[in-house]
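Priority: medium. Attachment 1 of 2:
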């Protein structure tokens, strides 16, 4: 497993959680941008990720979440206030951390949350993903993959080619992958069910960003979060990006708006503490 990145900064920290089958590298540009804005930033390396397919299949969503908790404990020991943000499946793990540990999390970045694989490129197989946990229990399709076709989450071809060449993400690369194994996707379905039930326990402010043209998970996933969390919500809908909004065309807007959101939440928290 590749090491998670860490950028030292100020007294507020942001924990960044990558998506299924990927590595912290998909969050590095966001992390650098948040660090330039003054935040201490740490990327989580999820259990089972960044190595072989067998390593991924040997892990489950509980192990992925445990990775987030361990990293959160570490970061909390070094900062006064912690935010958490995740991309795709990582957004679900970030929301779960906020629901389970409301006293740990000052705010949540929810980027391309994937509760349902209902984007325009997914096809009927992805839309039937609710059956995958049953297939896994029956031992069906362990080495079958849900094939992925271009655009691989990135709108602009130049960026797609660049990140496919230069952003390592395990044996298949960070963006140019053959697809996700059925049994790993079965774990994301189980995770989504768990987190959906917990959304009303999310009391922290949420910054929800989603591509309007997301080919993997439609913007209905963002609406689901906004409707069910109980904390204040701010929404950013991106018109010129696909699923991987942390590296696509509008990543600079995402970085700026995320930094502004976390900074405002932190300032309000400091003001409230002084007033008390």
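Attachment 2 of 2:
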């Amino acid at each position: 497993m590749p090491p998670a990145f860490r950028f030292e900064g100020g007294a507020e920290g942001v924990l960044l959680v990558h998506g299924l089958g990927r590595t912290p590298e998909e969050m590095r540009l966001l992390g650098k941008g948040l660090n330039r804005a003054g935040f201490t930033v740490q990327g989580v390396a999820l259990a089972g990720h960044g190595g072989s397919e067998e390593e991924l299949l040997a892990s489950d969503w509980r192990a992925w979440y445990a990775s987030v908790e361990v990293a959160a404990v570490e970061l909390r020991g070094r900062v006064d206030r912690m935010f958490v943000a995740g991309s795709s499946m990582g957004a679900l793990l970030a929301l779960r951390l906020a629901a389970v540990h409301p006293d740990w999390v000052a705010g949540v970045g929810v980027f391309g949350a994937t509760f349902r694989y209902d984007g325009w490129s997914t096809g009927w197989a992805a839309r039937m993903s609710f059956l995958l946990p049953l297939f896994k229990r029956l031992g069906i399709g362990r080495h079958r993959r849900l094939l992925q076709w271009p655009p691989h989450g990135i709108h602009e071809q130049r960026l797609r080619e660049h990140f496919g060449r230069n952003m390592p993400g395990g044996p298949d690369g960070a963006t140019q992958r053959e697809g996700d194994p059925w049994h790993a996707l079965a774990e994301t379905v189980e995770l989504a069910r768990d987190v959906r039930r917990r959304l009303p326990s999310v009391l922290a402010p949420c910054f929800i960003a989603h591509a309007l043209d997301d080919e993997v998970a439609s913007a209905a996933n963002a609406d689901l979060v906004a409707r069910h969390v109980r904390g204040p919500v701010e929404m950013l809908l991106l018109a010129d990006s696909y699923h991987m909004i942390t590296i696509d065309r509008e990543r600079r807007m995402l970085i700026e708006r995320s930094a502004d959101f976390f900074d405002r939440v932190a300032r309000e928290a400091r003001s409230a503490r002084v007033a008390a």
